[in-house]
Each structure stands twice: as C-alpha cells, then as structure tokens.
Amino acid sequence: MPGTPFFDEMVRTGRLLTTDWDRYNGKVDAVFRPSNMSARELEQGVAWFADQYYSLPSIFDRLFCKSRVGIWWNLPRNLGYRLALH
Which pTM does this prediction carry? Predict the structure, then answer.
C-alpha cells in the first residue's frame, strides 16, 4: 500500500511495475518484479499453482478427504474458481 515502508522500497529499487490499482487483483497480473525471477515467471507460476489447486482431482481430495466443513458450501465455490480461471 502507498505510504508503507515496503511500497517505498519497491518504488526506490525499481521493482514496482505499475500503480494501476485495477491490476492489483491478486489473481493474474504481476505488479512487481520479484527479486529472483521475472514478472512473467511469477505470473506463469501463479497460473500453474491455481490450475493444480483447482484441478478436479485436487478439489475432490480436498472436499471429500480433508474438508472439515460442509461440501455444499465448498463445492460450488471451488468449481466457480475453476471456471473463472479457464
């Protein structure tokens, strides 16, 4: 967030890529350059992780084998995220 020491450091070191707040969605756009990879590599890594996490086998395992809350609450939410990613 602007005004924080972290934000100031990102600006000072040239790692902040944009201040277009619409791109600060936490889902698709890299808004900063990580120190050990390119912004594109970060975007690809996040996309790969989301694809793995919201794969049908992962959803099944999470909901039927590990979930402590109701399936009727989590199944639509997980499938919705999966559809939104594709």
Answer: 0.70
Domain that residue 79 falls in: 54-86
d(CA 83, CA 86): 5
- The 10s digit of each residue's pLDDT in 38-66 is 999 999 999 999 999 889 898 888 887 77
Distance CA 17, CA 85 (A): 23
Tally of domains in the chain: 2
**Cα separations in angstroms, 44 against 47, 49, 65, 80:** 5, 9, 29, 21
CA 83, CA 10: separation in Å to the nearest integer?
Answer: 33
